[in-house]
Amino acid sequence: MPKINAFVFDLDGTLVQTERLKARSYAKAAVELCPEDVTEDEVLEAYKDVVGESRQTVATTLMERFDLEAASAERMTEVDVDAPWQAFVQVRLDYYEALVQDPEVLRENRWPHTLSLLDRAREHRCAVALATTSRRRQACHVLNVLGLDDTFDFVATADDVARTKPHPEIYRMCAVELGVAPEHILAIEDSPTGTEAAVAAGLHCIAFGTPFTEKRLREEAPLEDRWIVSAPNDLLDTVDTLLAETA
């Protein structure tokens, strides 16, 4: 087996709990659109079924689940979009931007265990990249707040690819830019779509199951159960196990 000498990290849900913030923003938007018919807790729970999917998929799924299409359609002209799901997304983005623009909120939502792994990878002089479905402006803001501006050798965002996860394009791009063959790279992910993209690109992959993603990871991720970590303190040990097996 080849030696792992590079890491590619997902951002949302992996280095920082932005998936929790995204869930809150969708929940607040849904309640704004239909305050009499839906609660934030209901939307937060439903979001677990679509975490990691595209904005269109998330929005349309939640709209259908909670009958939000008519209310969203009424906002189309106001936000200058062509489809109800886009209006829902725009309402939700106002809430999300307010959350992520607050540096304290982002710092409070860091994942210490994955950041520790990132630090260790750098200490061992491994190449490291970021592969995120966030837009570059948003990703750079998060990295800046967390003090990670100069940490990665390469940062790939949704702005850099034609097809986002679960398509493997973004991981293939990272491998090329790092100059490392995919079989020598370990991806750290948190969602089924992310793991699917990494595995399809030929990378090794370990997934950390968050409260929003663990159930779907166990059901859908193309990984053996032992490569899905539930307890934060188990991540480094799991990585060490994989590194030993691929040495």
Describe the protein:
- The chain has helices at 18-33, 40-47, 55-66, 69-73, 76-79, 84-100, 103-108, 112-123, 136-145, 169-178, 192-200, 214-220, 235-245; strands at residues 6-9, 127-131, 154-156, 185-189, 204-208, 228-229.
- A 6-stranded parallel sheet has the order 3-2-1-4-5-6, sandwiched between helices.
- The protein has 2 domains: 6-17 and 110-245, 3-Layer(aba) Sandwich (Rossmann fold); 19-104.
- Helix 11 (192-200) links the parallel strand 4 (185-189) and strand 5 (204-208).
- With 247 residues, it is of the alpha/beta class.
Text of the CATH class of the largest domain: Alpha Beta
Radius of gyration: 18 Å
Order of helices and strands: EHHHHHHHHEHEHEHEHEH
What is the strand tally? 6
Helix content range:
40-55%
Number of domains: 2
**CATH architecture label of the largest domain:** 3-Layer(aba) Sandwich
In CATH terms, the superfamily of the largest domain is HAD superfamily/HAD-like
Spans of at least 5 consecutive residues with low confidence: none
Arithmetic mean pLDDT: 94
Q: What's the main sheet like?
A: 6 strands, parallel
At CATH level 3, the topology of the largest domain is Rossmann fold
- Oligomeric state as shown: single chain
Distance between the termini: 6 Å
Query: Tally the helices: what do you get?
Result: 13
Category from helices, strands and their pairing:
alpha/beta
Principal-axis shape equals elongated
State the strand order across the main sheet: 3-2-1-4-5-6
Strand content: 5-15%
Task: Describe the protein's topology.
Layout: E1 6-9, H1 18-33, H2 40-47, H3 55-66, H4 69-73, H5 76-79, H6 84-100, H7 103-108, H8 112-123, E2 127-131, H9 136-145, E3 154-156, H10 169-178, E4 185-189, H11 192-200, E5 204-208, H12 214-220, E6 228-229, H13 235-245
Parallel strand pairs: 1-2, 1-4, 2-3, 4-5, 5-6
Helix pairs in contact: 1-2, 1-6, 3-6
